[in-house]
Amino acid sequence: YEYIATHGCSSAPDAPPPKRMGLYAESSGGALATSLLLRRKSAGASLPVACVMVSPWLDLSCSGGSFIVHEAYDLVLQKQRMVGIASAYLGGGSGDADASPLLQPPESFAGLPPTLIHVGDTEVLLDDARSFAESAALQGSDVTVKEWSGVLHA
Fold first, then answer.
1. For the chain, how many structural domains are there in total?
2. Which of 3, 54, 73, 121 has an alpha carbon within 20 to 30 A of 44's alpha carbon?
3. Residue 56 belongs to domain with CATH number
4. Which residue range(s) make up the domain with 68?
5. What totals of helices (H) and strands (E) does the chain contain, helices first?
6. Which stretches make up the Alpha/beta hydrolase fold-3 domain (predicted)?
């Protein structure tokens, strides 16, 4: 992100200028994108003009209630498997707030760019999307969540 934000995209000469760049993330990329936003904001660096996330996994501890309620419906993501993936990624444990943005203090979510989240209403990541949107909105950030009926994980 930093390179493109600073230098632009040389392989796409007609690309918009870096000051108009947005951020897109899907699934586990949601945690990466949100962590990037929070780190850049904390450092006083420029932020993308907008963010779009599809089915973001924002709490690698999988503690949202939708992991229990929707596990029978979400054929792609299962809590036990995801906890194992998170543990392997983090080298054990899942309580790292840098890797799990929902574990950040609520005030961290102030000043984020406008964010659009798409999520299925029967997937296990539903509560991650809702919790992020609620926390960010309470801090004055503009977040819209579009819940898609009967749609599974992206």
1. 1
2. 54
3. 3.40.50.1820
4. 19-148
5. 5, 4
6. 16-154
| Residue 115 covered by a domain | yes
Q: Is the dihedral of CA 57, 131, 116, 9 positive or negative?
A: negative
In 3-state terms, what secondary structure has residue 133? helix
- Residue in 146, 79, 81, 153 with CA at minimum distance from that of residue 123: 153
> Would you give per-residue pLDDT tens digits along the chain (154 residues)?
666 666 555 555 666 555 778 999 999 999 999 999 999 999 998 899 999 999 999 999 999 999 999 988 887 888 999 999 999 988 876 667 888 999 999 999 999 999 999 999 999 999 999 999 999 999 999 999 999 998 888 6
* 3 located within any domain: no
Q: What angle do CA 99, 32, 97 make, to 5 degrees?
A: 20
What does each C-alpha distance from 71 to 35, 81, 97, 117 come to in angstroms? 26, 11, 24, 20
3-state secondary structure of 2: helix
Residue 41: inside a domain, yes or no? Answer: yes
Cα-based distances in Å from 109 to 73, 77, 141: 30, 26, 7
